[in-house]
Amino acid sequence: MPSISPFLKTLISVSGLSAHEAPVRQIIEDKWRPLVDDLSVSRLGSLHGLKRGRAPASPPALVLLAHMDAIGLVVTQIVDGFLSLAPIGGVDARILPGTPVIVHATGNGTHQLPGLVVQPAASLLPPSARNDAVPLQYLFVDIGLPPRRVAELVQVGDLVAFATEPVELAAETLSGHSLDNRASVAALTVCLEHLQGRAHAWDVWAVATVREEVGLHGAATSTFQIQPDLAVAIDVTFGKGPGASDWQTVTLNGGPALGWGPNIHPALHKRFKELAEKLEIPFSVEIMPRGSGTDGMAAQISREGVPTMVISIPLRYMHTPVEMIAYPDIERTGRLLAEFVASLEVDFTARMAWDE
Amino acid sequence: MKALIQTLTETFGPSGHEDAVRAVIRAQVEPLADEIRVDALGSLIAVKRPVRDGGKKILLAAHMDEIGLIISHVDEKGFLRFTTLGGVPPRTLVGGRVRFLDGTPGVIGGEVLENWDKVHTMEQLFIDIGASGPKDVRVKIGDVAALERPFLDLGKRLVAKSLDDRIGVAVLIETLRQLKMTPHEVYFVFTSREELSSEAGAAAVAFGIEPDLALSVDVTSTGDTPKGHKTDVALGKGPAIRIHDPGVLSDPRIVAWIDQTARKNKIPFQRQVSTFGTTDARAMQASRSGVPVSCLAIPCRYVHTPSEMVDMDDVQNAVKLLVCLLSAPVEI
Known about the structure:
The complex is a heterodimer.
Chain A: H1 5-11, H2 22-32, E1 38-41, E2 47-51, E3 61-67, E4 72-79, E5 82-88, E6 100-105, E7 111-118, E8 140-142, H3 147-153, E9 159-162, E10 167-169, E11 173-176, H4 179-195, E12 203-209, H5 217-226, E13 230-238, E14 257-260, H6 266-279, E15 284-287, H7 295-300, E16 308-315, E17 323-326, H8 327-343, H9 348-351
Parallel strand pairs in A: 3-12, 3-13, 13-16, 14-15
Antiparallel strand pairs in A: 1-2, 2-12, 4-5, 4-9, 6-7, 6-9, 7-8, 10-11, 11-17, 14-16
Chain B: H1 2-10, H2 19-29, E1 35-38, E2 44-48, E3 57-63, E4 68-74, E5 79-85, E6 97-100, E7 105-110, E8 125-128, E9 144-148, E10 152-153, E11 157-160, H3 163-178, E12 185-191, H4 200-209, E13 213-221, E14 240-244, H5 252-264, E15 270-273, H6 281-285, E16 293-300, E17 308-311, H7 312-327
Parallel strand pairs in B: 3-12, 3-13, 13-16, 14-15
Antiparallel strand pairs in B: 1-2, 2-12, 4-5, 4-9, 5-8, 6-7, 6-9, 7-8, 10-11, 11-17, 14-16
Helix pairs in contact in B: 1-3, 3-7
């Protein structure tokens, strides 16, 4: 398995739901500390790693945004010892029953309680919900404890995180929860590793953002704070799976997808494409006809505007506990990012022209 | 406090047209604040300065606007078609009365339905101002009306239109009145335009003030009515911390601060995760480099109908809790 494998498996084995990213941030902090010149945490909890550029006197700045938050569930009510749920981010409820979870209980000290998402018998559901996937509002988490004990330990607002174990499959693929977007955090880490000992003119801000899944708040606020000259968002995109069309998905293990659309600055897209071709890194072009739905959307409209690029790792079964990626795509994305950083001339932005 | 709540809820102020209600609030807070100003989008900002330096800059936002109606078409017989300012459920409208900002009254009628098992859609409703000919029709496209419904005092419980969020406004005014000394610089802000889904008033306020932390003070729906919403929040059990809703993720440190302060001072409170609606905190959390936020909510039945209901115990406990929160230093 590739060298990034243990780190990525650790990343998807800790919790870090939107607005509660501290556990995963700690893991990333430890990994990045030797790779950057400076580390700090934003007011909303995003991790900022600065690797200084060699350009004399205030180098231009590039931000690389990869969100570290994950979707999950939160307790809305405790009914007879069972936990009712609301989503944090866009959870695909069709696949939830049977999923192992960890309840981060705070009712009486803190406890991490294993549990399972369960669905009631069909006879207990309203007729409209019997013949289809059961909507989230009718699902429960069962933590196995008697009702009185549950009421003591768990309170409304406690987080429920997926606990599916990572599984490495054939052909260098990995399945698990939260690969959206910890796979991109891993790619960003690969980029930082490639940059060790490489000369680059620009300041590079590696940012592990918070709250992407609930409104891009981390990208909006970190980009405002850093005031970069360029931004690149790294996220995942729909990998081709059974029955999916070639024009709506990209191939798993086919290399990073380079975004193209109104969220993307053409000069940045061109530079990424030329580099990938020159380096013989396989890639696809992903058409993003509206908003990209990524951190890039918030970065682009920060302050007076920031030229932005979105680069995505192919992923199957998005927003389920069994997301799937191919390791080589992470390596390729990390390497392409590093080559992009190293290629940036001090006057790159000055030479970017709209009518090229 | 009831008299103040009555005046606030019987004053009109649909989103973007808050002049009348702002004047009522201004008269209340002017003698209590160290500084008063109105920002470019019409929010009223009252500043309470600290006794000494070193505290936090805290923003409390209660929106003063209410849901309303805006005229989109006027026919020659004086029937007015309308669309809404904010989320007005059409089922709450038939038979209701409205009043335009210039005082013109009207009633809401509906087309005769083919199937009376259905409720009217907005397009099937109109306002009738009782005109007997074109000369009587002075209302124009773009004119704004609010629902009219008198305040009702049921003892411990109050019923009125626009308790969302005039009850939050009343809580902030009363908190400012009772707050003798604070280590913080506190901005009591009565925001405009909250009901218009982008919370533009609060967004501008947060950008302008750059607070260290912010709370919205709003209402939240309860689950204590027959086959009601799926929540344990009930009237009379204390103000609610709205920990999550579809737009806001409270900062866990602020939730802990409110939770511990309430416990320490033996003030009842409720925890809530709401699966619908949002508040001014949504716009404030992503302002500039980010603002830790949460929402303190007054439990309220029948939100966004002309007869919203709150419990005075919750109102007074919300004031008490805010005074406790603002009277002591905080590390966040």
